[in-house]
Amino acid sequence: MTAPWVRPTARVLVLDPAGRVLLFGGRLTAPDAVPGDVQWWYTPGGGVEDGESLRAAAVRELAEETGLVVHPAALEGPVWLRRHVGEFGGRVVDSRETFFVLRDVEHVVDTAGRTELEVLADEPHRWWSLAEVAASGERFAPRGLADLLPGLLAGPWTGPPQVVDG
């Protein structure tokens, strides 16, 4: 059996002035699969490249996936740490996720910078209010997003990062 691929990952909770969070709808189960229905909603972000800091990875991924270009210092946190082990394309991925916050964003998502795999995935995006997340029957990553968001919406994060469930 092949050892899991340990993948450091940086993610950004993008919040608009109304406190809504930007999420993408995960549809792809393997790199060679045809995208299906949305299986879960998650924040922009992705893998950290060799020699790249978490903040640098977060802003690079944000630019690639949303077209939003920000300075690393604009990110608040890290606010959450999450470990998620799952399979993608027949390989076990042990994702070690670090979440940052970007507040008061007014932006129209531009997906022109997406990677080939992200283009293939053709994932929808939308801004979700806390009430919409809490009332939804959809799956979110992290799992307890509705319970976690109020702590972020209350104001700037001042504590150490919180470990959150898958």
Automatic annotation (TrEMBL):
Residues 5-153 form the Nudix hydrolase domain. Keywords: Hydrolase, Magnesium. It comes from the Bacteria. Gene3D superfamilies: Nucleoside Triphosphate Pyrophosphohydrolase. Coiled coil: none annotated. Its cofactor is Mg(2+). GO terms for molecular function: hydrolase activity. Belongs to the Nudix hydrolase family. This is 8-oxo-dGTP pyrophosphatase MutT, NUDIX family. It comes from Klenkia taihuensis. The lineage of its organism: Bacteria, Bacillati, Actinomycetota, Actinomycetes, Geodermatophilales.
